[in-house]
From TrEMBL:
<comment type="similarity">
    <text>Belongs to the ABC transporter superfamily.</text>
</comment>
<protein>
    <submittedName>
        <fullName>ABC transporter ATP-binding protein</fullName>
    </submittedName>
</protein>
<dbReference type="InterPro" id="IPR017871">
    <property type="entry name" value="ABC_transporter-like_CS"/>
</dbReference>
<dbReference type="GO" id="GO:0005524">
    <property type="term" value="F:ATP binding"/>
</dbReference>
<dbReference type="InterPro" id="IPR003593">
    <property type="entry name" value="AAA+_ATPase"/>
</dbReference>
<dbReference type="GO" id="GO:0098796">
    <property type="term" value="C:membrane protein complex"/>
</dbReference>
<dbReference type="InterPro" id="IPR017911">
    <property type="entry name" value="MacB-like_ATP-bd"/>
</dbReference>
<dbReference type="GO" id="GO:0005886">
    <property type="term" value="C:plasma membrane"/>
</dbReference>
<dbReference type="GO" id="GO:0022857">
    <property type="term" value="F:transmembrane transporter activity"/>
</dbReference>
<dbReference type="InterPro" id="IPR003439">
    <property type="entry name" value="ABC_transporter-like_ATP-bd"/>
</dbReference>
<keyword id="KW-0067">ATP-binding</keyword>
<dbReference type="InterPro" id="IPR015854">
    <property type="entry name" value="ABC_transpr_LolD-like"/>
</dbReference>
<dbReference type="Pfam" id="PF00005">
    <property type="entry name" value="ABC_tran"/>
</dbReference>
<feature type="domain" description="ABC transporter">
    <location>
        <begin position="2"/>
        <end position="238"/>
    </location>
</feature>
<dbReference type="InterPro" id="IPR027417">
    <property type="entry name" value="P-loop_NTPase"/>
</dbReference>
<keyword id="KW-0813">Transport</keyword>
<dbReference type="GO" id="GO:0016887">
    <property type="term" value="F:ATP hydrolysis activity"/>
</dbReference>
Length: 239
């Protein structure tokens, strides 16, 4: 589903170039739930932005579902993002004066896809994320956990090929974080949704099938959830 080859990203700071990603190679299968962990500044969020077509690499290739993002024009990447990718962010990024239902439907307006069938999908997503009964409530009146549920439903409304989540539980307490992670797990298991999640939280990473450990712009280690005592290893890695 996702193939990253020799991916490099540099940023110009004054007269100096800083290399944030250093020739990263990574494959993610269809229907896999992968967590990317690493210390601050390790390059994990930069990698997610490149996978999402929000930025372009300095060198290397990114393929999603057989399409090269790095060879697309800006307009082509924008269309690809709308049609193939779903995004969940730490700060939700909802439109505060729109209702739950309107926020979920918002991506459909850009492509003129708000059909009767999609209206049914919206109602199914509202139920799936546990927001029935408050679907006409404005986003700015919701709790953090409720807002993130709206964000997940919005990300899934176009049936994306890949769901990208950047610290989706970063602004939530442990109880709400666990609810959001279990919700992502349901979509992953029941719908074979491919999910790539960046997180600094060992607890959150434990919900993934595979954990990619990032350090200094590259992959340091790959750990499977089934491996014994992986939590202890992750704790040592993040120390």
């Amino acid at each position: 589903m996702i193939k990253v080859s020799n991916l490099t990203k540099e940023f110009l700071q004054g007269q100096e170039r800083t290399r944030v990603l250093k020739g990263v190679d990574l494959n993610i299968k269809k229907g896999e739930f992968v967590a990317i962990m690493g210390p601050s500044g390790s390059g994990k969020s930069t990698l997610l932005q490149l996978m999402g077509g929000l930025d372009v690499p300095t060198a290397g290739d990114i393929q999603i579902d057989g399409k090269y993002l790095n060879k697309m024009s800006e307009k082509e990447r924008t269309i690809f993002r709308r049609q193939k990718l779903g995004f969940v962010f730490q700060n939700y990024q909802l439109l505060p004066t729109l209702t739950v239902e309107e926020n979920i439907a918002f991506p459909l307006h850009a492509d003129g896809k708000l059909t009767k069938e999609k209206s049914r999908v919206i109602q199914e997503l509202i139920q799936a994320v546990g927001l029935e009964g408050i679907h006409r409530k404005r986003a700015n009146l919701l709790s953090g956990g409720q807002q993130q549920r709206v964000a997940i439903a919005r990300a899934l409304v176009n049936s994306p090929t890949v769901l990208l989540a950047d610290e989706p539980t970063g602004n939530l307490d442990r109880a709400n974080a666990e609810e959001i992670l279990r919700l992502l797990t349901v979509f992953h298991r029941e719908n074979r949704q491919t999910i790539v999640m960046v997180t600094h939280d060992i607890f959150a990473a434990g919900f993934a099938d595979r954990i990619i450990l990032f350090r200094d712009g590259g992959i340091d280690q790959v750990v499977s959830r089934e491996e014994g005592d992986y939590a202890k290893y992750l704790a040592n890695f993040m120390a």
